[in-house]
């Protein structure tokens, strides 16, 4: 798969895919999108890099411990859910705030976005961990 | 946050705390000793919380916890006597199994993913017992399935189970349970299409109305049959029992204790919850099926156990036959038989966990899993010999152990409910249980010394972390035998709550919505 065409196209498209996955993540919850979809898209773009440039090359450039990403995401999600208990509500209760910003307009701030970001990291971590393990020859 | 706030949030804490700490454990992999201390503390804390939950349910009735305060559309956690009791049972056994595994497991296995997966397993079990939403039940089934798969392949010290055996067993376990998950999904989907809700209490109320007006659609029956397949697979009931004798022996001993002590009880819990709550109107049709399957399970399990030479395989086959007795009580379906089968379930969970832990220590002592190569260990391991005898007597149903009370109550209630033939068959095969358990004890501990000592394993023969859980569980076995009244009375009130689910339905549906 390491032809010049695929390399060039993936170099151009991977940043776009990552940006789109982040926009899906932020759009989520009430409209289509959310942590899971965004995470799958991010993982797909990185696995495109793995396939096109080869495992060894990507490892030499960027080699995070994807298991840690999984753990971080899970921790963030659970802590967000626990947060509601400390404010006297039931577990998982989401809080919502509308904020007016100049030039941008009204923005909806939801605490469940933090939960979605956690899901994002869980999905990325688990999918890429499995993908890299399967790709390894050991 | 004060104490009152904790008691308000008890049901979700039982699920959320293990998940939180399983995430934390991922970051503490470089510090195994810290992991051990934290995990033991958390597990003990969960045990205390589960005791508080049971006391709360006993005093205040059914506890309903609304996750996220979504009103009538949200997922609820419901803790009635059955749920709270099962949570207490599983928390106790998982704490002791964790304590045992600190010295039993190989350091490398223990340091990598064991603690995370164990916490996830506990979360899955607690969630399964506490949830009031049938799709949520499916999700927690998946959590406990996947995490237990990861735990089965973990290594104990000494490496008495080859890794290809472990892989084969895990593959069987995973594939069979994936198929049953798929079947469960189909059953849930068809129920949802029929009644338009996933909340179990709401479902029960709607199906009750349908059967009272005579409008019960025919596909409720096949859906209920699918649930028998699903829970029968989890509990290793006759046609789907063959994964168990591979999986439970090849898991490390503390995990075998968890699998045999708690995980197969999840199937029995599922039948009690789903059939007596939702499919109440179809129960007359399924009781004979459950009784028949239970009897075949008893017969197959006990006959196969007689022929085993591997100590852990023997215990696994014995688990199959014992879960048959639990299902026999459930199938007969009166208040007294269900109370009896709950007593049986608790006694078997405690005794079988203890036996699996003791067998792990015996394997380390003898250096083999084959009972033909053991013998004369009563001199070298007197403590284990006594503990194994207590467990064997309890499983065999010899007084004064808890198993005697359980078998007595079960047979007594069966006879008063006029199920003469099933009780006769069960009684005949209870004699097999006595035979194989006592013969196993005699082969391991009496006779001439046959095993050559494997000195490298003796260094960690029996530390306090391994002997204390065995001792505690055997004390519980004896206490259930000589002072059974509290257990019997709790089982009685639990059974009447199961038979008449109106209180459960009211508690969920009539709650005030904020």
Helix content of chain A: 55-70%
Q: Total number of helical segments of chain B?
A: 22
Our count of helices of chain A gives 5
% residues in beta strands of chain B: under 5%
Please tell me what the overall shape of chain B is: globular
Question: What value does the Rg of chain A take, in angstroms?
Answer: 18 Å
State the end-to-end CA separation of chain B.
Answer: 21 Å
What's the layout of helices and strands?
The complex is a heterodimer of chains A (138) and B (514).
Chain A: H1 4-27, H2 35-53, H3 55-61, H4 66-86, E1 96-101, E2 105-110, H5 112-135
Chain B: H1 3-8, H2 10-27, H3 32-60, E1 63-66, E2 76-79, H4 81-104, H5 107-130, H6 134-152, H7 163-195, H8 200-212, H9 220-235, H10 244-250, H11 253-278, H12 283-306, H13 311-332, H14 335-366, H15 377-380, H16 382-396, H17 402-416, H18 420-445, H19 455-458, H20 464-482, H21 485-499, H22 502-509
Antiparallel strand pairs in B: 1-2
Helix pairs in contact in B: 2-3, 2-5, 3-4, 3-5, 4-5, 4-11, 4-14, 4-20, 5-6, 6-7, 6-11, 7-9, 7-10, 8-22, 9-11, 10-11, 10-13, 11-13, 11-14, 12-13, 12-18, 13-14, 13-18, 14-16, 14-17, 14-20, 14-21, 16-18, 16-20, 17-20
Structural summary, described in words:
The complex is a heterodimer of chains A (138) and B (514). Chain A is mainly α and 138 residues long. Chain A has five helices and two strands, in the order ααααββα. Chain A has helices at 4-27, 35-53, 55-61, 66-86, 112-135, and strands spanning 96-101, 105-110. Chain A has a two-stranded antiparallel sheet with strand order 1-2. In chain A, α1 (4-27) packs antiparallel against α2 (35-53), α2 packs across α3 (55-61) and α2 (35-53) runs parallel beside α5. The radius of gyration of chain A is 18 Å and the shape is flat. By secondary structure, chain B is an all-alpha fold. Chain B is 78% helix and 2% strand. Chain B has helices at residues 3-8, 10-27, 32-60, 81-104, 107-130, 134-152, 163-195, 200-212, 220-235, 244-250, 253-278, 283-306, 311-332, 335-366, 377-380, 382-396, 402-416, 420-445, 455-458, 464-482, 485-499, 502-509; strands spanning 63-66, 76-79. In chain B, strands 1-2 form a two-stranded antiparallel sheet. The A-B interface holds A 67-68, 70-72, 74-75, 78-79, 81-82, 84-86, 88-94 and B 1, 5, 9, 12, 16, 19-20, 22-27, 65-69, 116.
């Amino acid at each position: 798969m390491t032809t010049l065409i695929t390399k060039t196209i993936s170099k151009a498209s991977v940043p776009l895919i990552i940006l789109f996955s982040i926009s899906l993540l932020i759009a989520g919850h009430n409209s289509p999108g959310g942590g899971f979809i965004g995470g799958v898209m991010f993982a797909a773009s990185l696995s495109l890099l793995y396939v096109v440039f080869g495992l060894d090359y990507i490892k030499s450039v960027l080699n995070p411990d994807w298991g840690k990403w999984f753990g971080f995401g899970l921790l963030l999600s659970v802590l967000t859910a626990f947060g509601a208990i400390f404010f006297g509500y039931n577990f998982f209760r989401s809080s919502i705030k509308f904020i007016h910003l100049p030039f941008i307009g009204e923005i909806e701030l939801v605490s469940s976005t933090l939960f979605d970001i956690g899901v994002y990291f869980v999905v990325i971590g688990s999918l890429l961990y499995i993908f890299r393990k399967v790709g390894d020859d050991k | 946050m004060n104490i009152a706030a904790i008691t308000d949030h008890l049901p979700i804490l039982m699920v959320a705390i293990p998940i939180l700490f399983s995430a934390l454990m991922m970051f503490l992999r470089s510090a195994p000793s810290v992991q051990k201390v934290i995990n033991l503390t958390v597990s003990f804390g969960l045990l205390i919380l589960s005791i508080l939950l049971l006391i709360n349910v006993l005093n205040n009735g059914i506890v309903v916890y609304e996750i996220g305060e979504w009103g009538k559309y949200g997922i609820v956690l419901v803790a009635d006597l059955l749920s709270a009791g099962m949570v207490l049972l599983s928390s106790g056994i998982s704490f002791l199994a964790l304590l045992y595994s600190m010295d039993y497991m190989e350091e490398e296995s223990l340091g990598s993913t064991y603690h995370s997966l164990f916490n996830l397993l506990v979360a899955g079990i607690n969630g399964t017992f506490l949830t009031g939403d049938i799709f949520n039940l499916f999700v927690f089934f998946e959590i406990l399935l996947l995490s237990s798969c990861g735990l089965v392949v973990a290594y104990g010290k000494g490496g008495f189970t080859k890794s290809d055996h472990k892989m084969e067993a895990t593959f069987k376990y995973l594939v069979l349970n994936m198929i049953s998950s798929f079947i469960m999904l189909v059953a849930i989907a068809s129920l949802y299409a029929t009644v338009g809700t996933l909340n179990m209490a709401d479902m029960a109320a709607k199906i009750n109305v349908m059967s009272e007006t005579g409008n019960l659609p025919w596909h409720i029956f096949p859906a209920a049959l699918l649930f028998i397949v699903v829970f029968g697979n989890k509990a290793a009931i006759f046609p789907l029992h063959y994964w168990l004798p591979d999986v439970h022996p090849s898991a490390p001993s503390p995990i075998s204790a968890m699998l045999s002590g708690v995980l197969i009880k999840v199937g029995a819990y599922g039948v009690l919850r789903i059939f007596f709550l939702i499919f109440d109107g179809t129960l007359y049709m399924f009781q004979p099926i459950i009784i028949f399957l239970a009897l075949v399970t008893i017969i197959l399990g006990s006959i196969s156990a007689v022929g085993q030479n591997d100590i852990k395989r023997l215990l696994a086959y014995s688990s199959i036959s014992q879960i048959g007795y639990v299902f026999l009580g459930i199938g007969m379906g009166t208040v007294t038989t269900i109370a009896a089968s709950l007593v049986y379930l608790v006694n078997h969970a405690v005794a079988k966990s203890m036996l699996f832990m003791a067998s792990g220590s015996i394997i380390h002592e003898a250096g083999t899993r084959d009972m033909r190569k053991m013998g004369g260990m009563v001199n070298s391991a007197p403590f284990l010999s006594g503990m194994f005898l207590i467990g064997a007597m309890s499983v065999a149903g010899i007084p004064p152990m808890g198993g005697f009370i359980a078998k007595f109550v079960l047979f007594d209630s069966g006879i008063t409910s006029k199920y003469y033939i099933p009780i006769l068959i069960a009684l005949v095969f209870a004699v097999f249980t006595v035979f194989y358990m006592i013969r196993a004890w005699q082969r391991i501990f009496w006779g001439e010394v046959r095993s050559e000592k494997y000195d490298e394993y003796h260094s960690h023969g029996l530390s306090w972390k391994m002997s204390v859980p065995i001792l505690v569980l055997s004390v519980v076995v004896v206490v259930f035998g000589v002072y059974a009244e509290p257990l019997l009375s709790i089982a009685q009130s639990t059974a009447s709550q199961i038979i008449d689910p109106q209180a459960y339905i009211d508690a969920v549906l009539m709650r005030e919505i904020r």
